[in-house]
Each structure stands twice: as C-alpha cells, then as structure tokens.
C-alpha cells in the first residue's frame, strides 16, 4: 500500500521571494550553523547606522497634544531659553526639554522628566568660552537626552537667551543636535530662536558681548531673533515687571503654535500646508514672525498688515526681500462672504508677496473672531 504525500496548506509570508542560492561547499560539507541567533548589529555594518531606533517608554516624553502639521521638538538652553521652552510646554508641546548648567534657573512648574542638568556644574558665570568647553565635554549627556526623551522629531527648535553664559554657549551643542537628527533620520533641520537683551541690560559689556557672540554663532543657520527691548516696549504699561517676560514668551509661543496648527487644517478657500511650512523653514538665514488683528479690513490692507506685523513683533523688522514667506489669514464667515472684503484679502496677499521671492498663503474661516487675524512669517532674510 503506497503512502500518499500529505498536502500542506500552510502559507508562508515569504512565498513571493525567490529561492536562495546555497553557497558552494568548496569540496567539503559545510557545518550547519543556521540555528545560531545572529544580530545584524554584531557585524558593525555602516548601513546599520541611522536605522529606525527604538526608544524606552520609560524615558520617552508623551506626544505633543498641541496640533501641528510637522513633527516638532523644543530644547531650551540656559535660563532665558528654559523660560521660552516652558511657554511651549504649557500650551501642549510636551516634546520639550530644558538644558541647563544649574537647577536654580529651571522654572518651578517644570517636571523633572523634562530637565537635563549638566553634571558637576553650577552655572557658567557669563563666561561663554567656559560654557562652550562645558558643553563640548558633556555633549553625550545632551545627545542621550535628545534620543531617550524626544525620540524622533523632524524639526528641532533650539531656544536660548543671549547675554548669559549658558544660553550664549549653545552653538557648541550644534554638532550634537545634528548627530541626533541624523541618527533618528529627521527630515527637517535645527531652527534657533535666540533673544537679544534689553537696552539697559546691554549697558553691561559682558552681556552685550555674549549676545553678539550668540547671534554670530547661529547666523549661518535658520534662526529667529527676539528683541527683549521691543517685547518690553510693547507690554510696558500693560503688564507689570514680574509678568512681562512670561507674557512675552507665551505670545511668541502661541503665534508659532497657530502657524503649526493651521498648516495642519484644510481650508474651503486656500490652505497653507505642511510642505509650504517646511519650504519656509528650510531656508537658512534670519526668520521673522509677526501677527496682528485688524478690526475692519478695507483698502490698503496689505500695507496695514505688513506695517502692523513688523511694528508689533518682538523680531526686528526684516530688511530686503525674503527667500520665502507665509501669510496666514483667519477671517469670519461674514468677511469671506463679502465681495469687497474678499477683494481686499486677495490684494493684501499680492502686496505682501512682493516682499518675498515665494509667498505661501492660507485663508481660514472661524466664527466669532474679533477681526481679521494675520500671521506673517519671512524666511531666508539676510543680516
């Protein structure tokens, strides 16, 4: 009685692959080592570096609850940078860490998981050369925190205050930021947001020198300068000294957050999308961000938007033409339904577009807005 061959119905997920060719035996039977567990990293292949990394949930910060069309993380360096970073943390950007050489400058409400303290240091004493040396020696501490706490982000915003020692030394960490971005295969860049001291603070030669050193260090990268003198002037008489910087930091954080949020939304009129935003951020050189509310949009709207955004921004007014920019408008249903106002909006976009080589724009509709809201960004500015 002949035995019938058993048919197997087991499917193989790799059935589509061609059969592998066995290596030659070179005159003798090769030993069967197929049962050995082989780890690809054991081979030290260069191709293995930069592969998607896995991160421990224990240290990984939660995903941002603030909506954004692009993957972003924030790193505040030094006392001023920590306060700016805290403003983003408070509005839902949980992928935020605060780096400092002393715990005394860390905002009290920030959880320990967001804090990275450089070991064996207690401040820099406004000595930038020493600060850069400390960061160079402890780059691995910061890089490890970026990997384990942030995981993967595509765009890294580095916030630092000019004038002090720690924040003004942040350029020494740029190789660390770039290594981190490469290792997690980020598609974006490092964006610096740095502050310039007030006129009174700048009377101190050391503070002025440190701030200038910081600006020069980030000049070749995409960077934004926030002038504290302009910030305090805009708020003076409205906010007391104690709340002036927190309010200023929150205003800036909310403006940038709106750009990130709106670029994630569809518009029935015109959308400003993630690719538009990334094209703007991809430009090296100085960047500008300003916003304004116009109660009754009418003639010369483009000129009014440009003038108000420049005069009511903490950023110094841009000079010359930007390589790229964006104008995001938020209007009421009544405005966009009015033919006259609609015509003014179109003219305004064209007018502002004359200040940029490429202008991306978006028009969004909201109920109960107090007026026409305009958010203007300009990127790739010189000087």
Summary tags:
33% helix; ten-stranded mixed beta sheet; 10 strands; globular; 2 domains; 383 residues; 60s Ribosomal Protein L30, Chain: A; alpha/beta; Rossmann fold
What is the structural class? alpha/beta
Q: What is the count of structural domains?
A: 2
Q: Largest sheet, order of strands side by side?
A: 3-2-1-4-5-6-7-10-8-9
Q: What Rg is obtained from the alpha carbons, in whole angstroms?
A: 26 Å
**Mind telling me the CATH superfamily name of the largest domain?**
Tubulin/FtsZ, GTPase domain
User: Unreliable runs, pLDDT <50, ≥5 residues?
Assistant: 1-53
Residue share in helices?
A: 25-40%
CATH class of the largest domain: Alpha Beta
The helix count comes to 11
* Number of E strands: 10
- Measured by DSSP, the beta-strand proportion falls in 15-25%
Largest sheet: 10 strands, mixed
Fill in the CATH topology of the largest domain. Rossmann fold
Q: Give helix and strand order, one letter per element, not per position.
A: EHEEHHEHEHEHHHEHEHHEE
Quick summary of this structure?
With 383 residues, the chain is α/β, with parallel strands linked by helices. It has helices at 78-90, 128-137, 139-150, 174-183, 205-218, 228-235, 241-262, 274-281, 301-311, 333-337, 339-353; strands at 72-77, 96-100, 115-117, 155-161, 190-196, 223-227, 286-294, 324-331, 359-365, 372-381.
